[in-house]
Amino acid sequence: MECAGGCTEPLDTDCFACRNFNNPGSCVPQCPQTLIYNKHTFKLEPNPSAKYQYSSICVAQCPSESTHSMLYPALPGAQLSQSVTS
């Protein structure tokens, strides 16, 4: 079971929160990988259902910098490091 914090039913789609990753609609141990093994050709092939890990969410595309800034604003008192020239 991939649920954390309880669920409404016994399925991984019925969780209040996910233990590992939330693949929209279902809690999963890992996001779908970019390559999958084809046991008929014995080769790794692109996975059409691949997703990327973004925090604890599986996403089809990495968010833009502006989306990232809205989701994770700088902490109060944090400063960006800048090179100082004399």
TrEMBL record:
Write the signal peptide boundaries.
none
Looking at the UniProt entry, the stretches that span the membrane are none
Q: A Pfam family matched by this chain, by name?
A: Furin-like
Domain Furin-like cysteine-rich per the UniProt entry, residue ranges: 2-68
Gene3D superfamilies on file: Hormone Receptor, Insulin-like Growth Factor Receptor 1, Chain A, domain 2
Q: What is this protein called?
A: Receptor tyrosine-protein kinase erbB-3-like
Species this protein is from: Salmo salar
Q: Which gene encodes it?
A: LOC106583619
